[in-house]
């Protein structure tokens, strides 16, 4: 996020995904192999993922569309085919970051936060990155169960007339 908004001291999404116990199970890993969710793309349970093996560190889990993967294209021996183990019904919470361009109208922020809450999302951080006379650009960190949960929240927000544009930020 500092690449996009360096002037804001915003908690990196990767900080939320660091979990020593890794309650999220992955298919395709050797038993006992350690892994971490990459901060560059902040994968959510349900995203299409791939692993990059680093000796002494373990496996970095990336979304398949992560730009960081380009730097590993000449090292096919480091790639590992992994996927989420969706048989585990344990609910884990991850943070996702979205950027919303919102019309500057009375009540528009309230509508956005209410839609997030009504879709069982919890806002863990919010920051106005741009303030103009007719619109605001807002960075919102939302606690979600998985990628599908985030997609549902995004779909609901896109239906709101006060929202001009919205996208998920990765990393």
The gist of it:
The chain is an alpha+beta fold and about 170 residues long. It contains 3 helices and 10 strands; from the N terminus they run H-E-E-E-E-E-E-E-H-E-E-H-E.
Report on the architecture of this protein.
- It is a single chain.
- The chain has helices at 13-17, 108-118, 147-158; strands at residues 26-27, 35-37, 49-54, 58-63, 79-80, 83-84, 94-103, 122-131, 135-144, 163-169.
- Strands 2-4-3-5 form a 4-stranded mixed β-sheet, with no helix packed on it.
- The N and C termini lie close together (6 Å).
- It is elongated, with a radius of gyration of 17 Å.
- With 171 residues, it is an alpha+beta fold.
- A hairpin with a 3-residue loop joins strand 8 and strand 9 (135-144).
Strand content: 25-35%
The number of helical elements comes to 3
Helix content: 10-25%
Shape: elongated
Q: By helix and strand content, what is the structural category?
A: alpha+beta
**What are the low-pLDDT stretches, counting only 5+ consecutive residues below 50?**
1-21
Sequence of strands across the biggest β-sheet: 2-4-3-5
Number of strand elements: 10
Span of the ends, CA to CA: 6 Å
Element pattern in H and E: HEEEEEEEHEEHE
Average predicted confidence as pLDDT? 85
| Major sheet description | 4 strands, mixed
């Amino acid at each position: 996020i500092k690449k996009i908004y360096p002037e804001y001291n915003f908690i990196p999404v990767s900080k939320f995904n660091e979990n020593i116990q890794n309650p999220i199970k992955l298919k395709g890993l050797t038993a006992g192999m350690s892994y971490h969710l990459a901060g560059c793309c902040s994968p959510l349970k349900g995203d299409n993922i791939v692993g990059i093996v680093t000796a002494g560190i373990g496996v970095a889990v990336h979304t398949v569309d992560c730009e960081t993967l380009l730097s590993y294209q000449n090292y096919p021996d480091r790639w590992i085919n992994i996927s989420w183990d969706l048989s585990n019904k344990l609910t884990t919470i991850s943070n996702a970051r979205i950027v919303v361009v919102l019309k500057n109208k009375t009540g528009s922020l309230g509508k956005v936060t209410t839609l997030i809450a009504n879709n069982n999302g919890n806002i863990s951080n919010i920051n106005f990155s741009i303030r103009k006379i007719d619109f605001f650009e807002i960075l919102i960190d939302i606690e979600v169960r998985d990628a599908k949960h985030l997609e549902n929240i995004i779909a609901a927000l896109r239906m709101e007339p006060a929202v001009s544009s919205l996208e998920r930020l990765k990393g």
